[in-house]
Amino acid sequence: MExxxxxxxxxxxxxxxxxxxxxxxxQSLLFSKLNASHGLSxxxxxxxxxxxxxxLWIGTSQGLNLYDGYNVRPYFREHNPELASDVIVEVKADxxxxxxxxxxxxxxxxxxxxxxxxxxxxxxxxxxxCPSIFETSKYGVILFGSKGQFYYDSTAGKWTKLDWIPxxxxxxxxxxxxxxxxxxxxxxxxxxxxxxxxxxxxxYQGAFSFPLSACKINxxxxxxxxxxxxxxIVDILTGxxxxxxxxxxxxxxxxxxxxxxxxxxxxxxDLLVAxxxxxxxxxxxxxxxxxxxxxxxxxxxxxxxxxxRVLAGxxxxxxxxxxxxxxxxxxxxxxxxxxxxxxxxxxxxxFDNYLTDIAGGENGIFWIGALDRLIKWNRNTNQxxxxxxxxxxxxxxxxxxxxxxxxxxxDKILVGTNGGGLTLFDVNxxxxxxxxxxxxxxxxxxxxGVMEMVKxxxxxxxxxxxxxxxxxxxxxxxxxxxxxxxxxxxxxxxxVFKIYEDRRGRIWMGTSANGAYVYDPVRQTIRNxxxxxxxxxxxxxxxxxxxxxxxxxxxxxxxxVLDSLGQKRNYTYNKGLRYNYCQDLLEDSINGTIWLANSRxxxxxxxxxxxxxxxxENSGLSIEGFRIGSSxxxxxGEMLWGSRSGVNYFHPDKLVSIPSRLTLSIQDLxxxxxxxxxxxxxxxRLSYLSNDISIYFAAVNLxxxxxxxxxxxxxxxxxxxxxxxxxxxxxxxxxxxxxxxxEVRASLDGINWINSNNAVSVYIVPxxxxxxxxxxxxxxxxxxxxxxxxxxxxxxxxxxxxxxxMEQAINYFAxxxxxxxxxxxxxxxxxRSCIGRLGFEDCVIYLLDDKRQVLVQTAAHGPKSPGENQIxxxxxxxxxxxxxxxxxxxxxxxxxxxxxxxxxxxIDDAFRLSEITVPIISDxxxxxxIDCEHSIKGxxxxxxxxxxxxxxxxxxxxxxxxxxEKEREKAQAILMDTQHKMAEIEMQALRAQMNPxxxxxxxxxxxxxxxxxxQATASLYLTRFAKLIRLIxxxxxxxxxxxxxxxxxxxxxxxxxxxxxxxxxxxSIVVDESVSADSVEVPPLIIQPYVENAIWHGLLHKETEGYxxxxxxxxxxxxxxxxxxxxxxxxxxxxxLRSKSATTRKSLGMKLTENRLSLLNKYAxxxxxxxxxxxxxDDETAxxxxxxxxxxxx
Length: 1194
Hints:
By secondary structure, this protein is an alpha+beta fold. Among the domains are: 532-657, Methylamine Dehydrogenase, Chain H (7 Propeller), CATH 2.130.10.10; 663-769, Immunoglobulins (Immunoglobulin-like), CATH 2.60.40.10; 800-963, Beta-Lactamase; 1014-1192, Heat Shock Protein 90, CATH 3.30.565. It is built from eleven helices and 85 strands. Strands 65, 67, 68, 70, 71 and 72 form a six-stranded mixed sheet that branches. The chain has a six-stranded antiparallel sheet with strand order 75-74-73-78-77-76, sandwiched between helices. The chain has a five-stranded mixed sheet with strand order 80-82-83-85-84, covered by helices on one side. Helix 4 (823-838) packs antiparallel against helix 6. The radius of gyration is 58 Å and the shape is flat. The N and C termini lie far apart (148 Å).
């Protein structure tokens, strides 16, 4: 019997141990910590509550604390005298957002503006113990303390005791928990009681052994936690215990009952049980018990196993208060990943560095490649074994980095290292054996870096190395090189990090710098995908596929989806990804989703709609960042992800991350150097002298408020939102007077925004001089003063106005007259302006005909002028007749107030009662008369007379100036004509000088032939001379000649000179096609003198035969160019010869021609010119002269 009992205990203990081990692996509730290092006043977190702003209040044995998700704000009695004590035993937020604080020395409460108040009972009692505070719908807040239960009677204005409370509740108090709005559960001494405050009845009461805590499960059941580790599910209708949970924990190999401290129901229905030394125990609705304990190696575990209080929030929050380690915040709705951060062996050695590859999974045993070792990890026991493969180098012993792992049969593991190539690890012998490398098989086999090993559907292993790829038989370890393969040799010398075989049997290979390659063994083809094909990067980290036929390629700048049709979609940072790097990819073959490691988060990508779901630290994932190629999927679909510190593991369908719902509130205001805490809407009224304001706000995420997007603006002062991450304050200085409203909103993803649950309205009070009554009084006073001034100065103002109007009218007339160029234009403009600007009905201007002594109507406006510058029924008035004639005769202006009484009035187009007539006088002589009429009697005033007198004076001056201008222009025209004729005469004189000069030269030549008795030559020369003289005489009286005739004369002249000098030279006259010689006119005898000079001074002195070229071309529509070029002795030689012959006089013909060109440029405003150039042979000797004439076409 004794053996059976021991065996039974051993089996039970083993079951508990296994359950405990599985509990560690199955842990899903993660916690963030809040303790004294974060600003908590004390680590003894005794009581907890959440107010309507989402802030967490924590009562400790050394002060009260407010946590807003970012910071902790402590409150102490030293600074808040109305706080009863720093030892807080109860804190509760009510429906009005007041916060009630129970202490051993009384009760205090914080109003909505977070000002402390002290509770006084029975008029004078302030010091009493109060361990429980709760709120009912009937009585409001009830204080349950050493003096009984009290509620605040607003009618009486004081706290009143509830005298009907059953005496049984006066026993030792343990716990109070809400059942419904008016029903509450009490645990006292050995009783559990439910009181209905509305009916004042006890609806349930039961006796238990030390019932420390109780909570509602449903309308008929409650959970009761007994001190000795039992949780009872009790039916309050029948009083029966339905189920009992016995909670035990292992202490040094001995199973002990867990002491309970509090029981609460989570929002998902689970029971949360705080214990003394067993952490937090969760009893699921299915009855499964899960323990959450402190693990020094797990940053997401509880901070202590000594838990005291547990608070269950409506959004899934689980807040656990501990005796010694502060508060812990988690969420029961999240299902997190398992995380092993540190691996340890039985000797106590630890490893927490990065992982490179994972394999295995049979019976919970995983082989893991790491920085400097191979790890055998037993996940069931969380125990590890470490194996290192060392290299003996000149720098000492150095372990190889394990980069790839592939388990073989017979307890052998093929290990690829970075630096040592392939090795074989014997599991039983626990020894590495290096596999020799045949370096003659190509760079892939010769490489010491084996980065990837994958078994293909053919049963063969393919290895990716720092030098390419090769094939390995897993049974014989025979290596096959691809260095001579028709397609795969392209991978030689490429750094291959990833190999993947898709569902079609194609093999994909990812390289570090050359993109991805896909090899089709059936078609014997290979294709490269790189940045040229729109990949975001050539550095490929991982490749996988899905059942839709999509291929996924990850890199250091995002990932690409390549569908079955070859279409690509890239996803990069800020276009779906949280970070740039995508280290690894795995397919969830059950749900068809793709999981990718994106630096410090995992992303679940749904190919059906391209949606993404993000999993980060709050899902239990490592915050250290994931590693390239370090993921693994077990046969049952569980995923393992290696990181820079440890490994995460989860089944994809069981990982749940519900984004925390934010609660945004404006917390504090600071004005005029004073701070003010707020929780509700605030209407702020500030003086214009205190118009600086600072506003502080926070979006609360109790798991840790970070990476929250905020936007705020002061409506009425600015239009645009201020945007930033984790900005929680706004400052405004020198605000103008007026009404403003501060708005703020927050978002976790930048898409879905929540608004603050309170608002701040600001009114900057204007100074006295900006207030309405002051402004009104000033306006009235100013209006009265102005009115008095207006009455007293009205006459002067009118006079000034008339002067201004007169000045404006005169300026207008003067401006228009200045622009006019003729007398008629001036008079027509004056007539129009008199009616348009002065309001006259009719205006007629007369000019005096001096010879006939009559006034002639020259300009008019009004009915007299129906069209532009037209006058109907033109009349003439003799000087002295009528009002107009009288004014012209005596030279004095007149105003006729009533023309019906003036017999001089002459009716023109219509009868009008008023007339004003002003003479236009210059130097005492009347030039004309301005006559204006109006149908209203007495219309014209002295102001009109003054304006018209000024206008008449302006007209007279303008008329005189125009007349003088005309005289000046006439004289100038006569002068210009005279100058032109003089120029013509001068030109004729020059031509007259040129003709005799030429004739004189020709007659000298004829005389020479006669003297020589050369009759034939003399006859030929005389014939041509006669013809040339006839052409010259024909053109002698013309300013211009036809170019063809000029060239004909030039030809005769050259031929005569050739005869004269025994044909010592030849010549050519060339006319360009652009020149119409028969229609172009030029000045005569311009070219000939330069031809003569070329012959006489250039060609005659040449010992060999000379050549003369005359080339005529067109420069523009108004200019021709004539080039006279000879190959004579040049100007320097000719000058030397003239010097020897004492002939230094310049050619008369050339001098006369230059004078003619100067006259053409001066008077005809042309640009004729002559330029002379010396020609040089290749040996720089003189080779003739070129003259360029630019002659205007006349």
